[in-house]
């Protein structure tokens, strides 16, 4: 490689990093205190928060509440054919488009995919994100999962659950006077204990909107992410309508399965008649850290049950 070519790649990398930092700085701007809820959902990669809570995020947004979907890593190895800065930039843009369709905000942190660790530096990063958003509710993975990045997102968010209120921890970012409510998104892992749905939300009214949003995650759902292949890509219908219908069938099974699995939780919140009729759902479990909401506060955090 010639020196001129090396210089070109070096300058391109600097421009990309500067752009990414600028996007993150813009996303870090706190929302105004307008009396609306402020929710932040953490996922390990630029698709996890969207998949786990995209429906309920759209519902909050429709009511004027503020939701941020945060990817704690940049997803730069989450593909079978490409990697590095180009993939990170692509996945950041995919997440931005998903958020736009859901009516929420997106932020992708510049941490390498597959290399997330529960370090003090990363604990401070998560603490700052929660503080800047002035979160009332924080959702993350549970700290038991197949992927180390998922597990450590859960650990980091748990570790931040108390520190967000400590004035001299990260004193450069104003601490929260009230500890948020912390919750986990659903998963299928059984040990050390299985996920328990304290809250299950019907997303029937926004199901099609969620499908249209996750369609933007082309690198993951069409190309297969790290587990994809050219043969898989070749099987994807070229007609956008056919591809949407194929993807929709996958999500009918996924969100329909969630509704059936957590039917009792739906009935508890919606009543027997409506709870039994729910087709698609997203479910969440309370974390014992953070604030424990009263029944009245729970109705405020999840206003969909009052409709």
Distance between the termini: 64 Å
Roughly what percent helix? Answer: 40-55%
What's the arrangement of strands in the largest beta sheet?
A: 3-2-1-4-5-7-6
Radius of gyration: 20 Å
Look at the helices and sheets and give the structural class.
alpha/beta
Beta content: 5-15%
The count of DSSP E runs of length 2 or more, i.e. the number of strands, is 7
How does the overall form come out from the CA principal axes? globular
> What is the typical, i.e. mean, pLDDT?
92
Task: Describe what this molecule looks like in 3D.
By secondary structure, the chain is of the alpha/beta class. It has a single domain, classed as Rossmann fold, CATH 3.40.50.10320. The protein is built from twelve helices and seven strands. A seven-stranded mixed beta sheet has the order 3-2-1-4-5-7-6, sandwiched between helices. The termini are far apart.
């Amino acid at each position: 490689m010639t020196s001129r070519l090396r210089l070109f790649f070096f300058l391109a990398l600097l421009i990309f990093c500067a752009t990414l930092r600028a996007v993150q700085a813009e996303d870090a701007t706190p929302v105004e205190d307008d009396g609306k809820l402020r929710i932040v959902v953490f996922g390990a990669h630029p698709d996890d928060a969207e998949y786990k809570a995209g429906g309920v995020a759209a519902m909050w947004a429709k009511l004027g509440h503020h939701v941020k979907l945060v990817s704690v890593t940049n997803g730069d190895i989450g593909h079978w054919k490409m990697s590095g800065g180009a993939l990170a930039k692509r996945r950041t843009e995919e997440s931005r488009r998903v958020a736009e369709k859901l009516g929420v905000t997106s932020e992708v942190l510049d941490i390498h995919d597959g290399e997330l660790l529960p370090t003090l530096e990363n604990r401070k990063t998560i603490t700052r994100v929660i503080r800047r958003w002035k979160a009332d509710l924080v959702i993350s993975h549970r700290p038991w999962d197949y992927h180390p990045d998922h597990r450590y997102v859960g650990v980091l968010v748990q570790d931040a659950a108390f520190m967000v209120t400590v004035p001299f921890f990260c004193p450069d970012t104003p601490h929260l006077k009230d500890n948020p409510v912390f919750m986990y998104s659903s998963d299928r892992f059984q040990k050390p204990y299985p996920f328990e749905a304290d809250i299950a939300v019907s997303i029937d009214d926004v199901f099609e909107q969620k499908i249209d949003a996750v369609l933007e995650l082309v690198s993951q759902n069409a190309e297969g992410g790290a587990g994809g292949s050219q043969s898989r890509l070749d099987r994807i219908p070229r007609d956008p309508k056919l591809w949407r219908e194929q993807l929709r069938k996958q999500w009918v099974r996924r969100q329909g399965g969630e509704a059936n699995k957590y039917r009792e939780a739906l009935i508890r919140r919606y009543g027997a008649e409506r709870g039994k009729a729910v087709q698609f759902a997203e479910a969440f479990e309370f974390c014992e850290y953070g604030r424990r909401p009263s029944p009245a506060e729970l109705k405020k955090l999840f206003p969909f049950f009052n409709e």
